[in-house]
Amino acid sequence: MQTNFDEMLESILPELAALADKRRKAEFLDKEMKDLQAFMGEGILIGKEEARREAAARLLDRGLNPQVVAECVDLPEEEVLRIRDERS
User: Fold this and answer.
1) pLDDT tens digits along 67-80
2) How many folded domains does the chain comprise?
3) Does the reported pTM lie above 0.70?
4) What is the DSSP string of the chain?
C-alpha cells in the first residue's frame, strides 16, 4: 500500500511543482502590473501639476494678477508667486 502511495506521490510531484511555479509567476506578474499602474498614475499626476505650473507661467507673462492666475489654474497663490519669482 505504501509503495502505491509513494509511486502516486512521485508521479504528481512534478505536476504540483509546475503548478506552484506558475502560481508564483502569476503572483509576481500581478504585483509588477500593480506597481506599474501606480507609477503610471504618479506620472500622470506629475504631468498635470507641471501643466498647471506652465499655464500659470504663461498667464503671469501676460500680466495677469497672481491671485487670478491661482484661481484659474487651481494652484495655491503662494505657488503662483513662487513661479513668478522664478521667472523674474
Assistant:
1) 999 999 999 999 99
2) 1
3) no
4) -HHHHHHHHHHHHHHHHHHHHHHHHHHHHHHHHHHHHHHHHHHHHHHHHHHHHHHHHHHHHTT--HHHHHHHHT--HHHHHHHHHHH-
Do 60 and 69 form a contact (C-beta atoms < 8 A)?
yes
Express each pLDDT in 4-46 by its tens digit.
877 877 888 888 888 898 999 999 999 999 999 999 999 999 9
Joined grid coordinates for residue 38: 501606480
Q: Which domain holds residue 31?
A: 2-87
Burial class (CB in 10 A: 0-12, 13-18, 19+), 40: exposed
